[in-house]
Amino acid sequence: MKLENGDQNIVVSLGTDHHRFDRAVDWIDDWLETQETQPRCLIQHGSSRQPRQGNGVDRMPRTDLLDLYAGADAVIVQGGPGSILDVREMGKIPIAIPRRPELDEVVDGHQIAFARFMASQGEALLAESADDMDRLLKLILADPNHFSTPPRHADAGHAAGLLAAALDTLESHQRPDAMISRLRQMWGHH
Questions:
Q1: What pLDDT is stored for residue 41 in this prediction?
Q2: Model's pTM, two decimal places?
Q3: Which of 32, 62, 102, 125 has the fewest Cβ atoms within 10 Å of its own Cβ atom?
Q4: Residue 16's closest CA among 97, 94, 77?
């Protein structure tokens, strides 16, 4: 799937988790409906509802999605580590919308913690409300080049350092021990 050059292109990826993320689809639909000139928008929605606006697809090969990120003016993703880091690898600073456990969008608060940390490091733009997303999309679409960087290549040591710093930040804010332990186990830190 390819987006045409010359138009403003937005790529949205909400992942493929079995938890629905209809809230994000609603925000994007509502935003697109208010645009006088609609940008081209691909929404990879996974198990979430089909969007009313834009071009919806439930799944697509990761390599195709990465190519779309590289050519997009703006990228919106769920707040998970894989999603944010994939976009950064392609040289874009994404808008990250973290899934919320209390809305049954994810099992725990790891996306909130990770997206906030990445935003604090300038690696993502955090949208915790529809108004945040609207403001950030306007900012990016006004000057997409300002939110592009050279592509980042995977550096496991650097990634581990960022994760360790995020875990330290979580511990200093007295986050639930279970979530911190789970993150440490996932990344092999004890």
A1: 97
A2: 0.79
A3: 102
A4: 77
Q: What residue type is 34 in one-letter code?
A: T
Least confident of 6-10, 58-62, 125-129, 186-190: 186-190
What span, in angstroms and rounded, lies between the C-alpha atoms of 39 and 124?
21
Burial of residue 168, with CB atoms counted within 10 A of its CB: 0-12 exposed, 13-18 middle, 19 or more buried: exposed
Taking 60 as the threshold, does the pLDDT of residue 122 lie above it?
yes
Give the integer Cα–Cα distance in Å for 82 and 183.
14
pLDDT of residue 135: 97
Q: What beta strand segments (E) does the chain contain?
A: 9-13, 40-44, 55-57, 74-78, 95-97, 125-126
